[in-house]
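Posting for a labmate who doesn't have an account.
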Amino acid sequence: MTGLPFILKGFLIGIIAAIPIGPVLMLTIQKSVSDGRKAGFSCGLGGTAVDTLCAIISAFALSGIGDYVQSHTTVIELVGGLFIMFVGFNMFRTHVAKTRRKKPYSAKYFVKAFTMGLSNPAAIAVMLALFTFFKMDMRNIPQWIPVASILALACGSAGYWYCLSRLVAHFGDRFNFKILVIVNRVAAIGVFIFGAILVYKGIISL
């Protein structure tokens, strides 16, 4: 059995899971503008660490209770989708700070972003919903496939944050308050729409 479909889906899940969840996005943009791309990327890596941890938990959950998950896919899609919509709604309401304090680069940025990510109680539910949506059932497959899929997920997430932090740092001087608000709201709408798609899939499968 080839593991390529799992690896490709893992990479895609990593990108989707990295769609900014409010505080991590704003912290990454803030540090990218004020302290450069390395500081911003360190914040993004904190988000990647949370996504990877949630993915590992989801992979074990789907492997250990695969039959239960398959028989409750509709519930997972509905609940996970509602969680994602709720997160998107809160992102849309997030107020962007007009002022930014410059600080030297520090690994504390990674820890701060990681803590922010862990503070979101919906993180595991969202990841589990993504694994269910993409049918990432890892039972009865070679052990290297789940490992490769999780690594691909981490690469997808890290790649997203790297591109974002580099882009923001490059155009940082041109970013004003209005643009930051637009970026945050576009991301919020994207998150909300994805959640709505999951809810829709759950409803039509009832």
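Reply:
Got it, the structure tokens are right above this. Residues 37-64 form the longest helix (28 residues).
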